[in-house]
Design a protein that fits this description.
The protein has helices at 2-38, 43-85, 145-152, 175-181, 196-201, 209-218, 222-227, 245-259, 275-289, 324-330, 333-350; strands at 106-116, 119-129, 134-138, 160-165, 168-169, 182-185, 263-267, 293-297, 309-314, 317-322. It is an alpha/beta fold. The protein folds into two domains: 2-85; 106-350, P-loop containing nucleotide triphosphate hydrolases (Rossmann fold, 3-Layer(aba) Sandwich). It is elongated, with a radius of gyration of 31 Å. The two termini are 55 Å apart. Bound molecules: adenosine-5'-diphosphate (ADP) and magnesium ion (MG). Adenosine-5'-diphosphate binds at residues 115, 121, 139, 141-147.
Length: 351
């Protein structure tokens, strides 16, 4: 709104200014030329008038420029004030204590959730992740897997049930301490237009260079970085434009390693990758996940066979849970998904 008003006022200002100046110039030059022709003025006077006018109009033009700048800044200030007015939808309770994750077990109990009241996304979701375990959540796209992660991060409040970490309800502790306890490798990583090194350091801004380099090594990024023109001082470009999906993902993993949080979450960290990058990343992930409680959301089931527990989500409900072998034996949803993916893979290899 402000931007449009700004454009309109600029348009009338620039247009009006140009018109007035042009008219005045023409008028004065015309008068002066007339006098010269009549012999009452010399050519020197004519040049003098011209010089005076230029001296007069240049500052006038500058005034217009200043006005434009001020208007533009006003529009930006208005936008900023609007942003400052946005209140978070999820608030800490007054004097909420810090989460002390000495025991990083997670429990979803009868969790219900909707973004909008007319459409339930999760219905009575219950499962637990014991400390140090790796639990996978699988299911069709739109089943609500990423929503589970958002709820664990407390981006939204539940409409029913509870989520606890180490037995403590996450809505009772400060958001800050909750989010510090969870490291996430998201589906699409956001990078800043800075060096690779600084992008990794974002996981823990206080980390020393040695710590950052160690994280880079653990994330198997070394090989890639040594090929870059400026090594780890290479700029990644706007939004990490100059990195491939797999490379960005590994930067995200390095960040998470650096953050050293007791709980790790991977939201389809490898689904957008070819199988070679996937293998490299899976190897990195396995090392990182050692000794951590981890929640893995996976599209390709072959990546989570070794999970301690697999939770199958369908349209916001848990339909099955158990280990890979148990679920295959049940011949239910999971078994069906598994055989479909196996067939697809064989087709891909054959073709
Ligand atoms: N911010 C949002 N507002 C409204 N609906 C949403 C929002 N985010 C996701 N959804 C809906 O919730 C459902 C579950 O989404 P999501 O948890 O991302 O699924 P998954 O990760 O399993 O593919 C989808 O149908 C999606 O359209
Ligand atoms: Mg998702």
């Amino acid at each position: 709104m402000a931007r449009r008003k700004n454009r309109l006022s600029l348009f009338s200002l620039n247009g009006g200014q140009a018109l007035i100046i042009a008219l005045a110039m023409t008028g004065m030059m015309w008068l002066a030329a007339h006098r010269v022709a009549a012999g009452t003025m010399t050519i020197g006077d004519f040049v003098l008038i011209n010089a005076f006018m230029i001296q007069l109009f240049l500052p006038l033009n500058f005034l217009g420029f200043v006005y434009r700048e001020i208007k533009g800044s006003m529009a930006n200030i208005e936008k900023m004030l609007q942003l400052l007015d946005v209140r978070p939808s999820v608030n800490d309770k007054p004097q909420a204590p810090e989460l002390q994750p000495n025991e990083a077990s997670i429990a979803f109990r009868d969790v219900s959730f909707h973004y909008r009241p007319d459409r339930e996304i999760l219905r009575g979701v219950s499962f637990t992740i014991d400390s140090g375990e790796k639990v996978a959540v699988v299911g069709a796209s739109g089943a609500g897997k990423s929503t589970l992660v958002k709820l664990l991060f407390r981006f939204y409040d539940l409409s029913g049930g509870s989520i606890t970490i180490g037995g403590v309800d996450i809505s009772e502790v400060s958001k800050h301490s909750l989010r510090r306890a969870i490291g996430i490798v998201p589906q699409d990583t956001v990078l800043f237009n800075d060096t690779v090194l600084e992008n990794v350091r974002y996981g823990d801004p206080e980390a020393s260079d040695t710590e950052v380099l160690e994280a880079i090594r653990l994330a198997h990024l070394n090989g890639f970085i040594s090929q870059l023109p400026d090594g780890h001082q290479t700029m990644v470009g706007e939004r990490g434009l100059k990195l491939s999906g797999g490379e960005k993902q590994r930067v995200a993993i390095a960040r998470t390693i650096l953050k050293r949080s007791p709980i790790l979450v991977f939201d389809e960290a490898t689904s957008s990758l070819d199988s070679k990058s996937e293998q490299a990343i899976l190897k990195a992930l396995k090392e990182v996940a050692k000794g951590h409680t981890s929640l893995v959301i996976a599209h390709r089931l072959s990546t989570i066979i070794d999970a301690d527990k697999i939770v199958v989500l369908d349209q916001g409900q848990v339909v099955e849970q158990g280990t890979h072998d148990q679920l295959l034996a049940q011949r239910g949803h999971y078994a069906e998904l598994w055989y479909t993916q196996q067939k697809e893979q064989q087709k891909a290899i054959a073709s």
